[in-house]
Design a protein that fits this description.
The complex is a heterodimer of chains A (about 110) and B (about 110). Helices cover about 0% and strands about 50% of the residues of chain A. By secondary structure, chain A is mainly beta. The termini of chain A are far apart. In chain B, a hairpin with a 5-residue loop joins strand 7 and strand 8. The chains are: A mainly beta (about 110), B mainly beta (about 110).
Amino acid sequence: ETGVTQSPTHLIKTRGQQVTLRCSSQSGHNTVSWYQQALGQGPQFIFQYYREEENGRGNFPPRFSGLQFPNYSSELNVNALELDDSALYLCASSLRTGSDEQFFGPGTRLTVL
Amino acid sequence: AQSVTQLDSQVPVFEEAPVELRCNYSSSVSVYLFWYVQYPNQGLQLLLKYLSGSTLVKGINGFEAEFNKSQTSFHLRKPSVHISDTAEYFCAVSGVTGFQKLVFGTGTRLLVSP
């Protein structure tokens, strides 16, 4: 059974650029959630995708957008990058039941200069 | 809406000593409760979860937590810690109904020294 994988591991961008982060969910999971973890903080919920539809969204602006593909992998896109977008971005996959465990990937470390 | 407060940002402890990491939550609805551990440069790993039933929950690596509804707490305990337990620990909550969105606390860094 393959766990949650994310790519790239690290990347550096400049203000105003756009970035795409990728996530492959664990086998059999149909739900993907994205979280932003700023340095020294707990993860904050960005949004969740279930069967290719956005299922819920946290308090993030529209320049944060996502996609989920038929194989349940997912992308997080961030436009017009700001310095405060520097963070660890975590992807988590699960089955769409309220009590099911979310399995986290290792994260992508984004640095915005 | 839910919120989580982890009262201690850092807890230093000697190896083989007991430890308790505190977590309090706020919610207007019934909740599920979780503890996750994060080792340096890694993602989050689930230690244990409370869904319903017995208020004492046992998890991996010898950790346990007790759900106290009247005090809205879910403190994590381990009777004897190891150097390898040094990590960041996050308490999280999600509502029982609706989609599962985890709300995390700010984390507690457990520092185990010899």
